[in-house]
Amino acid sequence: MNDAALEILGVSKRFGDNLANDDISLSLAKGEIVALLGENGAGKTTLMSILFGHYVPDTGSVTAMGKELPPGKPRAAIRAGIGMVHQHFSLAPNLTVLENVMTGTESLCSPVSNVAAGRKKLLGISERFGLKVDPAARVGDLSVGEQQRVEILKALYNDARILVLDEPTAVLTNIEAEKLFSTFKEMARLGLSLIFISHKLDEVMATADRIVVLRGGKLVAERKASETSKAELAELMVGRKVTRPVRDPSTPGQVGIEAAGVTVRVGGVDRLKSIDFRVLTGEVLGIIGVSGNGQATLAQLLSGTVGRTAGDLFLFGQHVGDLTVADAVATGIGRIPEDRNREGAIGEMAIWENAILERLARFSRRGLVDRKAAIAFAGRILSAFDVRGGSPTSRTRLLSGGNMQKLILGRNLIEHPRILLAAQPARGLDEGAVAAVHERILDARRAGTAVLLISEDLDEVMMLADRIQAIVGGRLSPPVRAQDADARKLGLMMAGEWEGREVTDAV
Amino acid sequence: MTALIDILGSAGLWAAVLRIATPLILGTLGALLSERSGVLNLGIEGIMTFGAMIGWLAVYNGAGLWTGLLVAALSGAIFGLLHAALTVTLGLSQHVSGLGVTLFASSFAYYAFRLMVPVAGTPPTIVPFQPLDIPFLSSLPFFGQAFFTQTAPTYMAILLAVLLAYLIARTPVGLAIRMTGENPHAAEAQGINPMTIRYGAVVAGSALMGVGGAFLTLSAFNSFFPTMVQGRGWICIALVVFASWRPERALFGALLFALFDGFQLRLQTVLSGVVPYQIFLMIPYLLSIAALAVMARRARVPQALMQPYRRGER
Hints:
The structure holds 2 protein chains of 2 kinds.
Chain A: E1 4-15, E2 18-29, E3 33-37, H1 44-51, E4 59-64, E5 67-68, H2 74-79, E6 82-85, H3 97-102, H4 115-128, H5 144-157, E7 162-166, H6 174-189, E8 193-198, H7 201-207, E9 210-215, E10 218-224, H8 230-238, E11 255-266, E12 269-280, E13 284-288, H9 295-303, E14 310-315, E15 318-320, H10 325-331, E16 333-336, H11 340-344, H12 351-356, E17 364-365, E18 368-369, H13 371-384, H14 401-413, E19 419-423, H15 431-446, E20 450-455, H16 458-464, E21 467-472, E22 475-476, E23 480-481, H17 487-494
Parallel strand pairs in A: 3-8, 3-9, 6-7, 7-8, 13-20, 13-21, 16-19, 19-20
Antiparallel strand pairs in A: 1-2, 1-4, 4-5, 9-10, 11-12, 11-14, 14-15, 17-18, 21-22, 21-23
Helix pairs in contact in A: 13-14, 14-15
Chain B: H1 2-9, H2 11-36, H3 44-60, H4 65-89, H5 94-116, H6 143-147, H7 152-170, H8 172-182, H9 184-189, H10 194-220, H11 232-242, H12 247-270, H13 278-295
């Protein structure tokens, strides 16, 4: 192919025992959008890092615009017109948009920085591609979606002709993601070539011209978007048929947890405004909403890390004041926090230590930790919840995201909690792990646990929840039954479209 | 009360303030440059001591005063190189490495001094920098005596503060330094080598610290004794925070601290006999802590300060 903008030939890369990329070849035409699909650990990010010169491949070459790139030289990749948009943004929050974009674009020996010219160029690009941005704004003050725009602008400012995006929608809301993909199409129309990494089938099907599937470091398939289906891609990606679990009917029992008019004020702001909800044992209540609308505070309230300002909280009909973390543990409230790396587990500590931390008293003997019992307990979790990639004594950090989440789930579910609080339990996990996590949550429901599921994933909530309430700006909508809900209705609820009108089918 | 006003109104106080401030300005600028790139350099106290010693020693052995400053700068740069090798290349703890450099450089300074200069009852002296006579300005009433009777290095220090402020805020290399201190991965992704930037900033910053130390022996005083830096390096580290990592504010902070210090020196003579004079020695530090508490709460710390950068790791 002579019109190929980018050509990767026979690239392999080994890290220790792990062959991250195994003889991968792929090409990208001008004006084409290619999606690189694969589960976590399939080698997508490694391949992109090689492409951008962060890693040196063991074998193989990268050719951009007909010229072979020297390996391991990011600067050469930039000069050849490759722009990388990282999953974790490479931005400095304390600097302005313009400063972030201009870094490294001028000679370091130059006695003065031509800010005016840089500003003009940036505004020109932002106009051309419809990526609106204020050059003087401090990056830390921007929303996540805007920060991503800055990342893209940074690449375009360096005259990128080939854009490489690593999981561009991982941190975006649905609406932001849709906007981003229409920008992609516009860029392709203007002659840019794009590669984006993803494990979300919907966006891959909707956006890409061609889809390349990686699995276990190998390129397993290449399909035109028009000639494949989500089911086929899922199978290619996982290597076997994936069936998502189904929620069977259950008979809810007593009220497990109930909030009546609870308001929580944090730092002078009402994060939760007079919310009402009740979760019955043996059912899942889904709280749907765009991230940042009070979900974090709701989770903290029930985990005992924040107190009420007003309103009442009941557990199994008993009036409780403010919960403390110890109360939550004693009552049997299992907690799956939103940010598993920061709040869910301590990466530097061993798996067994993470497993017993909240039940330390039970694993103490004569003032010392009973290591043997603790390690046995952790071992039980690992086998019962199919946690792979570590033994009870290995460091928790070494687990993949999905396995760490299974560990956290196991730690909570192994003792059959009466209440389970699951915040974004499947965020950032790949297909196989999502199915496993969902399965476990439904198991808990079947066993009579009252489950409160906080999520911004419509599919997840519709699949798992019996009843659904939307959270918007700290307020909760009245609940609707899952069978009465559809994506459109929930979308309206998430936009706050319930106030001032009767929700007739409120439960 | 009138005594206080008398002190503030004396031209001698203001002349002293500029003199006291000079080593602080140089040291603070050095620490600030290094921290802006993400490296804390607690070697400052030792580097200043060594600079004071080696600068003086060079002049004592017949070198010119400016050569003495240059030698001090070079010695600072070498200690900077050591600190950079430990913290940037090896990625070791910046605190531990810095304290190690301070202990090593101070002890080395005492040792070298003992080795080169015979023990004597009164330490040997050199002829230090003389006040510059600036035509017209120096002969102004009050202002002339207060502000224009300084030695050349003092004016140089003030000029350096302005230059560094410009360098950091307005030039591409300044932006590269700031980006490296905020997010070295982002700098790398834009084709800047964070390692090179950090080496440069630490070495240049340490050179400034060395010059700051040498000012003590070549201008403020005329001989060297081992305890003469007296915690000025630590004051500089605090002044960087007080200045929110901005050179122009560092200049202001150094002058403010020098004002407290010059003021207490005079207070000692006015109130001698009333209370032990040691109480006045505390005053500048107390006031600095108060000022720091007020100012530093709004400070914007370089996000990658004290975080070693390793390629390919996130």
